[in-house]
Design brief:
The complex is a heterotrimer.
Chain A: E1 8-13, H1 25-33, E2 38-44, H2 50-62, E3 67-72, H3 75-87, E4 96-100, H4 102-106, H5 113-131, E5 141-143, E6 147-151, H6 155-166, E7 170-174, E8 189-190, E9 195-196
Parallel strand pairs in A: 1-2, 1-3, 3-4, 6-7
Antiparallel strand pairs in A: 8-9
Chain B: H1 2-6, E1 10-13, E2 16-24, E3 27-34, H2 49-53, E4 57-59, E5 68-70, E6 72-73, E7 85-86, H3 101-105, E8 118-124, E9 126-129, E10 133-135, E11 152-154, H4 155-162, E12 183-190, H5 206-220, E13 225-230, H6 240-249, E14 253-256, E15 262-264, E16 271-277, E17 282-288, E18 290-295, E19 297-299, H7 303-310, E20 337-339, H8 349-369, E21 371-373, E22 379-381, H9 391-395, E23 401-404, E24 409-412, H10 422-426, E25 432-434, H11 439-449, E26 458-463, H12 467-476, E27 485-490, H13 498-506, E28 511-516, H14 527-545, E29 552-556, H15 562-577, H16 581-614
Parallel strand pairs in B: 9-20, 11-18, 12-13, 12-18, 13-14, 26-27, 26-28, 28-29
Antiparallel strand pairs in B: 2-3, 3-8, 4-5, 6-7, 10-19, 15-16, 16-17, 22-25, 23-24
Helix pairs in contact in B: 4-5, 5-6, 12-15
Chain C: E1 4-11, E2 17-23, E3 40-42, H1 44-48
Antiparallel strand pairs in C: 1-2, 1-3
Classes of the chains: A alpha/beta, B alpha/beta, C mainly beta.
Chain lengths: ~200, ~625, ~55
C-alpha cells in the first residue's frame, strides 16, 4: 500500500554543467514541487559535496522528511554517499533513492534540452511515485563461527588447513582416504622443481 | 603432511566422510562419519608387524595396482596418520577364530575387530572445498588398447614405475617382461581436448607432466629413446619453457601428430603406431617397447555428493562453478564457501597451492571479522499464500528454498538469498515479495513514466550489474541516443515479472525492452536464463493474441558495452516510430480483455475451491 | 544426451532469418549475426512449413 501521508523531499543536482548544461534544473524543481507528496524541493550545484549534503540533512530535520529523492548521477556512483548522509541524521538508508538524470539523461541527450528536461522530469516523478512504497530495510549482521571445514586432504586442502591453523583458527580437515596426500602423493617427482612430491 | 597431522589447531579426520552440512555462512552444522580403521591410530606405531603375518594379499591401489599389499596395511610409507588400518572387505573375518593373526602379533594391542564407526558433529563458519580430481580412464578409447596391450600404461602408472618407492623399487621396467624399455612413446591429450568423448577442455597439467617424465627418464637412462606425440605443447608457466627446451636438448623427439591407433606385435609385445607428422605432412611409423598415455584430469566421480551437501553448481566441463570466473575465482556462489585445487578446474601443484592459500585468506576475511553482513534486499515469503508448487526452489540459484509438494511444507533460508528476485517474478501465487523491488514499486514507476505521451516512450528494464551499468558507461562516454527510453532498474533481469511487461503495454507503451547480463556475466549464477524463458513465453502469447512479438525485445548488454547500449537504443527508436497509434490502441484493448478474462477465471477458481476441497 | 540440430531462427529486432544450433531443454545465449540483438526467436512457422501469414 502506498503511504499517502508521507513527506517527500526532492533534491536536484546540477553537477556543475554536467546536468544543468542539458537539463533545465529550475523547471524540474518547480515540477517536483507540484508532484504528489513532495513537500520540499531544491537544487544544488553539487549535491554530493559537503554543502549539498548539509542541505539534505537540514531539510530532513526541518521539514521532517520521510523519504528523500536525489535526482543526480547514477546510484552506482553515489548511492552509498547519500545513504550514509541520510543515516547520519537518523533516517533509514533505504529510504533515500537516486533518480539518474546524468548518465542516463543529460549526458546522452546533449543537444536536446527540451527532451532531456522532459525525460528528467519523468525520471524524477517515477522515483517520487516509487518513494511512496519504500520501506526501511535492515542490514542484518550474523556472527561467524571461527572454524573452517576443509573437505579433501590433498595438497590444496593441506595448504589451506595449514594457513588457517597457523593464523589461529580451528580447522576440521576431512579426508575420505585413510591417509592425507591425495593424488600428489602418488607422483614420483613434480615440475617445475623436479623434486619429490611427498 | 606431517605438519598437518600434528598441528594443534587441525582436527584431522581421515577415512571419513561429510554426511551432512546444514545452515549458511557463519553457521554451518557439520556431521562427519569417521569410519573405523579397526586399529587405534593414537596407539599404532606403524611397525608393520601385523602386515607381515596377515595372510591376505590384494592389489595395492597406491601403486596403481602394480603391486600388492595385505588386508592390514599402511597406505604408503609416509602416510599421515602413520598408522595401519584393516580393509575389512578383504580381511578374513572379524571373528578371531577365523584368523586373528594380526591382533595376536600386535605388541601394543591396538587392533580391535569390533571397533565401530563414529559420528562427529561440529560447527564451522566457512567451508573450503578441496575435493580434487580424478584421472581420466583411457579404457573407453579402444584405439589405444589400454589394458589390452600390457605395455601401454597411463602417466599415473608410469609415475609409480619411475618412483624409488614404486612397485619396482625404482627400477624402470615394462610390464610384460620386466625388462628396461629402450624406446618409450608418449601420447598427449588422452581424455583432453576431445569433443568426441565430452572432454573438450585442456587438462592443463599433462604437457608439463610429460616433459617432466621425459627429463626424469633421460636423467636416469640417457640411452632410452623417448618420443612425444602432441597437438600443441602448452608450456606457459614460469620456468616451463626452460624445461621443455631441456627436454628437447636431452634428445627427446617431439612429433606434432596424435596416433590413430596403437597395435601390438604379439611376439615382441612391442607397440606400433602410425602417425601423420603435421609439421612435415608425412605419415610415419614408430615402434616402442612401451607407451605412456598422458591422461587428462576429470571431475571426481563422487562430486555430486559434495555438490548436494553445499548446493553448488558445475560448469559445462563438470568442475565446480566459481562465483565469477575472473573476479571471484576462489569463491563459490554461496557466501562462506571457497574452492581450492582441482575441484574448481584442472591445476598443477603450484596453482593448487596458490588457490589453497587464496581460499584460506578468503575464509580468514570472514573468520577474523567474526561477523558477516547479510544482504538487506532479499525475498520474503508469505507461507499463507504458498501453494507448495516448488517453482521457487527450481528457479533459486542459491538453493534457499526447500519445498515438499506432497507434505505441503516449505522452508526458506533468507541468509542464502542474494536478492535477484527471480522467485518473486516466477511465483504465481504472490507468496514471494522482493524487498526494495516490490511489484508495487516497479508498477508505479511504469505508471509514472507512461502518464504523459505513452506512445512516445519505450520502457526498458535494466539489471543493476550489466545493462543499467552499460547505460551508465554509454553516458560516461557521451554517446548520444534518442530521448524516448525510460529505464527501470532491477537488481537482476530475473526480477522482470511477466506482469510488468503486460502492464507497460496495457498502459500504452509502444515497445518494451528487457535487458540484462550476457550469460557468462549473470551476477546471480544463471537467474537470467529464467528471464529469457519468460520473454520467449511472452512472444508466443503475443502471437496468439495477435500482438506483434517484435514489440518486446530481449537484449544482453554488459557493463562495458556502452556502444552496444547506444546502438540498441537507436535501433529501438526506429522500431518504435513504426508502431502506430491504432496498433497501440488495439494492444491495450486486447490486453485489457485478457486481464478481465484472467480475473474472471481467478474469481471462478476461488468460488470453486471450497467445493473442490471437500471432494 | 539431447540431440543438437540446426534450426531456423528469426531476429525480432532486424527481421534477419538464420540457422543456429538448438538443443531441446538447453538454454543458450543467442545473438543475431546481423544486428547483434538477443531477441532471437525460434521460427516455428518455417519449421512447420506453413506460410508466414503475418498480421499487419
Amino acid at each position: 500500500m502506498p503511504q499517502d501521508d508521507l513527506k517527500i523531499g526532492v533534491f536536484i543536482c546540477e553537477c556543475g554543467t554536467n546536468i544543468a548544461g542539458s537539463v533545465d534544473v529550475d523547471s524540474v524543481v518547480a515540477n517536483a514541487k507540484k508532484t504528489g507528496n513532495v513537500v520540499y524541493s531544491t537544487k544544488s550545484r553539487y549535491m554530493c559535496s559537503e554543502p549539498g549534503q548539509a542541505e539534505i540533512k537540514k531539510a530532513i530535520k526541518e521539514e521532517k522528511l520521510d523519504r528523500v529523492i536525489i535526482a543526480a548521477c547514477s546510484p552506482r556512483m553515489h548511492e552509498p554517499t547519500f545513504r550514509e548522509c541520510v543515516a547520519s541524521v537518523g533516517m533509514n538508508p533505504y529510504l533515500v533513492d537516486m533518480a539518474n538524470i546524468r548518465e542516463q539523461c543529460s549526458w546522452v541527450h546533449m543537444g536536446n534540452r527540451e527532451a532531456a528536461t522532459k525525460k528528467a522530469k519523468d525520471i524524477m516523478k517515477a522515483y517520487v511515485a516509487r518513494a511512496r512504497y519504500l520501506q526501511p530495510q535492515e542490514e542484518k549482521e550474523i556472527p561467524v563461527e571461527r572454524a573452517t571445514l576443509i573437505i579433501g586432504g590433498g595438497i590444496a586442502g593441506m595448504q589451506s588447513a595449514l594457513d588457517l591453523a597457523d593464523a589461529g583458527y580451528q580447522v576440521y580437515l576431512v579426508e575420505k582416504e585413510p591417509s592425507l596426500g591425495g593424488l600428489m602423493s602418488k607422483l614420483a617427482k613434480t615440475y617445475p622443481t623436479m623434486d619429490c612430491a611427498i | 603432511m606431517m605438519d598437518v597431522g600434528r598441528h594443534p589447531n587441525i582436527k584431522l579426520l581421515t577415512n571419513s566422510k561429510v554426511e551432512a552440512i546444514k545452515g549458511y555462512v557463519g553457521n554451518f552444522d557439520v556431521k562427519v562419519l569417521k569410519k573405523t580403521r579397526y586399529v587405534d591410530e593414537t596407539q599404532c606405531t606403524a611397525c608393520g608387524d601385523c602386515a607381515e603375518v596377515c595372510p591376505v594379499v590384494v592389489p595395492d591401489a597406491y601403486q596403481q595396482g602394480l603391486s600388492s599389499r595385505k588386508a592390514i596395511y599402511i597406505p604408503f610409507p609416509q602416510a599421515v596418520p602413520s598408522a595401519s588400518l584393516i580393509d575389512m572387505e578383504s580381511c578374513l573375518g572379524t571373528n578371531p577364530i577365523a584368523c586373528g593373526k594380526c591382533a595376536d602379533k600386535c605388541d601394543k594391542k591396538c587392533i580391535d575387530y569390533d571397533a565401530k564407526d563414529e559420528t562427529i558433529e561440529f560447527k564451522v563458519g566457512t567451508v573450503i572445498v578441496a575435493t580434487g580430481m580424478d584421472v581420466f580412464d583411457p579404457v573407453i578409447l579402444e584405439e589405444y588398447g589400454y589394458t589390452k596391450h600390457e605395455n601401454v600404461v597411463t602417466s599415473m602408472e608410469f609415475e609409480r614405475l619411475l618412483s624409488a618407492g614404486g612397485p619396482s623399487d625404482g627400477h624402470f621396467i615394462r610390464p610384460t617382461d620386466r625388462q628396461r624399455p629402450k624406446t618409450v612413446g608418449f601420447v598427449q591429450c588422452v581424455g583432453s581436448r576431445c569433443e568426441k568423448i565430452g572432454k573438450p577442455y585442456c587438462s592443463n597439467i599433462c604437457c608439463m607432466n610429460t616433459i617432466k617424465d621425459t627429463l626424469l627418464l633421460k636423467d636416469h637412462y640417457p640411452d632410452i629413446q623417448a618420443k612425444v606425440f602432441y597437438i600443441d605443447i602448452r608450456a606457459f608457466g614460469k620456468g616451463f619453457e626452460d624445461l621443455f627446451k631441456r627436454s628437447k636438448e636431452a634428445g627427446v623427439q617431439y612429433i606434432r601428430g596424435i596416433p590413430g591407433e596403437i597395435t601390438e606385435d604379439p611376439k615382441s609385445r612391442n607397440l606400433k603406431v602410425m602417425v601423420e607428422d603435421t609439421t612435415s605432412n608425412k605419415i610415419e611409423e614408430h615402434e616402442f617397447d612401451m607407451m605412456v598415455l598422458s591422461v587428462g584430469v576429470t571431475p571426481r566421480l563422487d562430486m555430486p555428493e559434495v555438490q548436494q551437501l553445499l548446493t553448488l553448481s558445475k560448469t559445462p566441463d563438470g568442475f565446480f562453478m566459481e562465483a565469477h570466473p575472473k573476479l571471484k575465482p576462489v569463491d563459490a556462489p554461496s557466501t562462506g564457501i571457497y574452492f581450492a585445487g582441482c575441484a574448481e578446474a584442472p591445476k598443477d601443484v603450484k596453482d593448487s597451492v596458490t588457490q589453497a592459500s587464496a581460499a584460506a585468506a578468503r575464509a580468514e576475511t570472514l573468520l577474523s571479522a567474526g561477523k558477516v553482513k547479510l544482504e538487506a534486499i532479499t525475498s520474503t515469503l508469505d507461507t499463507a499464500l504458498c501453494r507448495y508448487c516448488a517453482t521457487c526452489s527450481r528457479v533459486c540459484p542459491y538453493g534457499a528454498f526447500t519445498v515438499d509438494p506432497k507434505k505441503k511444507t516449505i522452508s526458506y533460508i533468507d541468509a542464502l538469498c542474494k536478492g535477484c528476485g527471480t522467485c518473486a517474478a516466477e511465483c504465481r501465487f504472490g507468496a514471494l515479495t522482493m524487498k526494495h523491488f516490490t511489484d508495487e514499486q516497479i508498477v508505479t514507476q511504469i505508471d509514472a513514466h507512461l502518464a504523459e505521451d505513452p506512445g512516445e516512450k519505450v520502457i526498458v528494464f535494466a539489471c543493476n550489474w550489466c545493462s543499467y551499468a552499460g547505460a551508465d558507461t554509454c553516458g560516461g562516454a557521451r554517446l548520444q541516443y534518442p530521448p524516448n527510453q525510460r529505464l527501470i532498474r532491477t537488481m537482476c533481469s530475473g526480477r522482470v515479472d511477466e506482469k510488468f511487461v503486460l502492464h507497460a503495454f496495457r498502459k500504452g507503451a509502444p515497445m518494451v525492452v528487457v535487458s540484462g547480463c550476457h550469460y557468462v556475466d549473470c551476477h546471480y549464477i544463471d537467474a537470467n536464463r529464467w528471464t529469457q524463458k519468460r520473454v520467449e513465453k511472452l512472444w508466443d502469447k503475443f502471437e496468439k493474441w495477435g500482438i506483434r512479438p517484435e514489440r518486446l525485445l530481449l537484449e544482453w548488454i554488459s557493463a562495458a558495452e556502452g556502444q552496444r547500449f547506444q546502438k540498441t537504443m537507436q535501433d529501438i527508436e526506429e522500431l518504435r516510430k513504426k508502431v502506430t497509434k491504432e496498433e497501440i490502441e488495439q494492444t491495450v484493448k486486447i490486453l485489457t480483455e485478457e486481464e478481465e478474462k484472467d480475473k474472471a477465471k481467478a474469481k471462478k477458481k476461488q468460488a470453486d475451491s471450497p467445493t473442490k476441497k471437500k471432494s | 544426451m539431447p540431440e543438437t540440430e540446426e534450426k531456423d531462427f528469426k531476429c525480432l529486432r532486424c527481421s534477419a532469418e538464420f540457422k543456429l544450433p538448438y538443443t531441446k531443454g538447453v538454454m543458450q545465449e543467442r545473438t543475431c549475426p546481423k544486428c547483434g540483438s538477443n531477441s532471437v526467436r525460434l521460427d516455428r512457422k518455417k519449421e512447420k512449413g506453413a506460410p508466414a501469414g503475418e498480421k499487419k
